[in-house]
Write a structure and sequence with these properties.
The strands form three sheets. Strands 2, 5, 6, 7, 9, 13 and 14 form a seven-stranded antiparallel sheet that branches. The longest helix has 16 residues. The protein is globular. By secondary structure, the protein is mainly beta. It is built from two helices and 14 strands; from the N terminus they run H-E-E-E-H-E-E-E-E-E-E-E-E-E-E-E. Helices cover 13% and strands 49% of the residues.
Length: 175
Amino acid sequence: MKKFLVTITSILVIFCTGCATTSAVKTTMTTELIGNPIPDYAVSVVGRTEFGDSWYHAAHSGEGFSQTFDIEIINNSNTIGKIVWDNSSITDSDGTHRIFLQGMRFIKAGDPISDMIVPPGSKNIKTISSADSVEWSSLGNCWVLKQMSGFDFTITICINTDGKDNYVINKVHVQ
């Protein structure tokens, strides 16, 4: 009986920790900047990663790949700007969604996000996804990022300069 309990416990531990193991797969993408109305600022999508979790993938019939985008923000001006995450968004074929930043607590997905100060002469890279991609998996007892829909995405980043909100829009097509 003791061996049986140890075996069952071991299987459950391996099964539940499967959510934490991911492997990154780089994919190709093309981006198009739709206007950049802010002098001395550059905002671009510089990378995309899919994280595949074989346990989640198998359990959810092919929906086990989450997508994240790396956004590069450069301030070449002499003034401080700020990224207004609550006015920024990511759009997929299911609609427009709030931003989820890498490093946020999963349980806080969809909550207001503090603005990010962008000092003069700085360069920042932030990894984002859709806040609606975050879900609790009761099957694995862990938080997961589910796949966003489609191959075409619009990433809108709000930059506040001199008290005025400006929007930089990047169209992204992934293959």
